[in-house]
């Protein structure tokens, strides 16, 4: 439960810390028809010759953010305990606006126990869910039953 609480708190602040999520920049304003296609964005990222981006299979996703006039390109993480890289590319000029590590993904994987494998994740998250349900129900019982029981006992004594 402590791991879930701490990692959940970290992920809640991902927009405030650049380590957890690189700050989103703004690209040059342009109509959507002037924005470069995703294939060109992939080429720009691969031309950076980053160790994390050696081929198309290393690109996890390319997201267009039209309100900010940029593409967010997310690369695959190098390993289980490492964070993926995010590169922000201007949607109209193709200039690289920002590049940084997405630390939030590592913390999300720890939060869900995915770093330990799919089987461990499913077992531990199921046990955590059942535990939270049990704690909630038993807490409600312990909170509500004694006053109810005392009130019932008083009513019974007052009728005698």
Strands, helices and their partners?
Elements: H1 2-12, H2 38-47, E1 59-65, E2 70-75, E3 85-90, E4 96-101, H3 103-111, H4 118-159
Antiparallel strand pairs: 1-2, 2-3, 3-4
Helix pairs in contact: 1-3
Task: Give the structure's gist in a few sentences.
Helices cover 45% and strands 16% of the residues. It has 160 residues and is α+β, with helices and mostly antiparallel strands. α1 (2-12) runs antiparallel to α3 (103-111).
Question: How does this structure look, described?
Answer:
With 160 residues, this protein is of the alpha+beta class. The model has no long low-confidence stretch (mean pLDDT 86). Helices cover 45% and strands 16% of the residues. Strand 3 and strand 4 form a beta hairpin. Helix 1 (2-12) packs antiparallel against helix 3. The protein folds into 2 domains: 2-111, Nuclear Transport Factor 2, Chain: A; 117-159. The chain has a 4-stranded antiparallel β-sheet, covered by helices on one side.
Parts with pLDDT < 50 across at least 5 consecutive residues: none
Number of domains: 2
| CATH topology (level 3) name of the largest domain | Nuclear Transport Factor 2, Chain: A
**Total strand count, please?**
4
**Coarse structural class:** alpha+beta
The assigned CATH architecture of the largest domain is: Roll
Mean pLDDT: 86
Global shape: elongated
Strand order of the largest sheet: 1-2-3-4
Protein name: PepSY domain-containing protein
Pfam families: PepSY_TM
Keywords: Membrane, Transmembrane, Transmembrane helix
């Amino acid at each position: 439960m402590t791991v879930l609480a701490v990692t959940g708190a970290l992920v809640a602040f991902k927009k405030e810390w650049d380590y957890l999520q690189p700050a989103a920049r703004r690209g040059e304003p342009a109509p959507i028809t002037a924005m470069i296609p995703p294939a060109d964005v992939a080429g720009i990222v691969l031309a950076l010759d980053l160790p994390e981006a050696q081929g198309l299979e290393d690109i996890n996703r390319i997201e267009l953010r039209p309100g900010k006039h940029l593409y967010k390109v997310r690369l695959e993480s190098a390993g289980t305990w490492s964070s993926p890289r995010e590169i922000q590319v201007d949607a109209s000029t193709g200039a690289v606006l920002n590049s940084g590590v997405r630390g939030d993904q590592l913390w999300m994987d720890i939060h869900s126990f995915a770093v330990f494998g799919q089987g461990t994740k499913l077992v531990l998250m199921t046990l955590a869910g059942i535990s939270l349900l049990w704690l909630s129900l038993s807490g409600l019982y312990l909170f509500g039953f004694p006053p109810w029981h005392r009130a019932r006992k008083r009513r019974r004594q007052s009728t005698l």
